[in-house]
Amino acid sequence: MSEMTPYVLVLYYSRSGATATMAQQIAAGVESVSGIQARLRTVAPVSTTCEAVDPEIPEQGAVYADLDDLRNCSALALGSPTRFGNMAAPLKYFIDSTSSLWMNGALIDKPACAFTSTSSLHGGQESTLLTMLVPLLHHGMVYAGVPYSETTLLETHTGGTPYGASHLAGTRSDRSVDEHERALCVAQGKRLARLALALHAMRQEAL
Fold this sequence. Notes:
alpha/beta; Rossmann fold; seven-stranded mixed sheet
C-alpha cells in the first residue's frame, strides 16, 4: 500500500468468524472504488487475568490495530459482535484508548460506519450499531449508514439495517453470511470509500 494512497480502516473484533467475514466484504466494497484502499485490522482479546499476554501478532487473520492506523485513515468501518446490545469489550477497550486522537481532532470530518453480528434476529443489532456510533460522533466523525436506495434492505429477512450492515449468526453462531448480508456489506464499503475520497479532498483543500 502506498503511503500516499488514502485508506479506509476496517477495524473489527470477531470471535466466531462472522464479523471478520463482514469486514472482508466491506473491504472488498472499498477496494472496488478507484483511488482508495482498505486496511483490515483487529484488536486483541481482553482478560480479567492480569498475567495473560497475547502475542504482538495474531496467529491468523488481520494484525492488531494501533493508534497510527486510526490517526492516518481517511475513513473508519467499525465492526463488532453484539454484547447485550453494545460492542464487545475488546473493541470498546481499544476505542477507549483513543483520547489522544480526540484531543488533537485527528478524526474530525472523516466518514465512519459500523457493522455487527448477532445470534438472534432481535438480539440487539440496531442498538449495537447506534451505541457504536456514539464515540465516533464524539471524535467529530461523519456517520454513514446504509440508505434505502440499496434495495437489498427491503429484501433481506436476516441482517441489514439503515444504521449499518448486520448479520444473523444463529444461536450456535454457525450461520454463514448470506448473499443479502454480503451485498449490504459491499454496498456500505463502496459508500464509505466514495465519501472518504470526497471528504479527504475537502480536508486537503482546507490545509
